[in-house]
Amino acid sequence: MNFEWMSFVEFGIIALALVIGTFFRAKIKFFQKFMIPNSITAGIILLLFYSLLAPKINISTKFLENLVYHLVNISFVAMALRKPGKRKHEKRPAFATAMNILSVYVIQGALGLILTFIFIKTFIPGLFPSFGFFIPLGFALGPGQAFAIGQKWEAPAYGFEGSGSVGLTFAAVGFFWAIFGGVFLINLAIRKGWIKPPSSSTGDGANRSGLLRHDDKFPIGAHLTTQSEAIETFAFNISIIFIVYLAAFLFLKLLTFLLSFAGPMGMSLAESFWGISFIFATLFGLIGRKVIDLFRVGHILENGTLTRTTGLSVDFMVAASIGAISVKFVLAYWIPILVMCATGGIVTLVFMVWMSSRVYTDHKFERMIL
């Protein structure tokens, strides 16, 4: 019998990389010291596999690219469907965090445009004008958004070949800046007296293996909200997520159909909407939550299960996003990538410390790290 195996084979490859990454974190001190997420280690393993071995056995990165695009949307739907917790009164004004985040976007975008302009006027006159926007897309928004918008720029109307891989590269470098830059800032803060040294429960003697010990207290990750002989709670929650995602897809198809009457300009706008489909996925997730609450069955959507679904999506998405990077296009644009990633990382770290010390009134460093 002939059945399609390839999708499940590639899921198995990603799963194997995640398990190997988990083993490395559990056994190797370097990964524990910097608390490197297993999904990033898995992504590096996948990058090596898909760059060196996969082409010889006719496996491309197309599946990984599709997976990144859809999993980022699924994670946003799952988060949007969660029941909001009770808001606690905080001393800091709400606009402080918004100001901090938005100002970082502005600084990163402006820096990217300036560097792009310099490259166009000097060494690389044919560089894509929006190349510098990959700094905020990759560093701040993450691999899903960087890849989706990068893919949009690969269209004939824009002609930026390999921009999806370039976006994923910026996101991957952003992860490493967050890991190693974060550890550097924490050590600096301890030396400067901005924060207290970690206690024994979080210091060198803490369990950083990424796995709970057999005698640890296991936290509860989710609760049952259905009777299992009827339908599993996980199956029901996943079904709601995919129904919402289907609704977002149908809405985008309808929007594309309507915009087609506006000619090429309308179709170009429609393609842009598909590139930011995570926004529509989030919107329909919020609408879905309101509809379910309206019928007073919101308790069936279980926050723990939705959180686990988000975590599952993000782990697979991060691993796939690094694995999907095309070394060919990275080498083609290695100079602007290197300069922008290095400059963008340094400027972001310095600016975050400076800005957070001014917009927050308490726990300034801790809020900045978060």
Mean pLDDT: 88
Question: In which range does the helix fraction lie?
Answer: 55-70%
Range of strand content: under 5%
Listing every helix as H and every strand as E from the N terminus to the C terminus, the arrangement reads: HHHHHHHHHHHHHHH
Radius of gyration: 22 Å
Q: How many domain regions?
A: 1
DSSP, total strands: 0
Give the helix tally: 15
The rounded distance between the terminal residues' Cα atoms is: 52 Å
Anisotropy-based shape: globular
Uncertain spans, ≥5 residues at pLDDT below 50?
none
Describe the sheet with the most strands. Answer: none
Structural class: mainly alpha
Features:
globular, 0% strand, 370 residues, mainly alpha
Note the topology.
Elements: H1 6-27, H2 29-33, H3 38-53, H4 62-81, H5 94-121, H6 134-141, H7 143-153, H8 163-192, H9 233-259, H10 264-275, H11 277-294, H12 303-323, H13 327-332, H14 334-359, H15 364-369
Descriptive notes:
This protein is mainly alpha-helical and 370 residues long. The protein has one domain. The protein has 15 helices and no strands. Helix 9 (233-259) packs across helix 11. It is globular, with a radius of gyration of 22 Å. The protein starts with 5 loop residues before the first helix and ends with a helix. The relative contact order is 0.18.
